[in-house]
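Priority: medium. Attachment 1 of 2:
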């Protein structure tokens, strides 16, 4: 029977499914990176007029863009950390299996 990897949040995956799992996580990470790059290029809000209200509106909108970028970067880091964790567990599992085989 293959081992289990605790991936947090009360979830675990079978060690044999780790590659599929990390591939899916990487695909999500890639999409977040694409969205962030696109937002960085396209999401800058300029005041629609030359009055204080327009400036305040643009400032608020740009703050929301910044908050989203911060959220996105946080999620990217979470995914990258989880991928790293799963890969480390898989490598440790393989090393243990190898060591056990040598002892047998």
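Attachment 2 of 2:
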């Amino acid at each position: 029977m293959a081992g289990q990897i605790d991936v947090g949040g009360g979830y675990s995956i079978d060690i044999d499914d780790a590659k599929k799992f990390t591939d899916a996580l990487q695909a999500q990470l890639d999409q977040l990176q694409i969205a962030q790059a696109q937002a960085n290029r396209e999401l800058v809000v300029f005041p629609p007029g030359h009055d204080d209200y327009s400036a305040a509106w643009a400032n608020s909108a740009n703050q929301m863009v910044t908050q989203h970028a911060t959220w996105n970067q946080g999620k990217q880091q979470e995914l990258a950390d989880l991928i790293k964790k799963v890969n480390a567990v898989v490598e440790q599992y393989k090393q243990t299996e190898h060591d056990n085989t040598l002892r047998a």
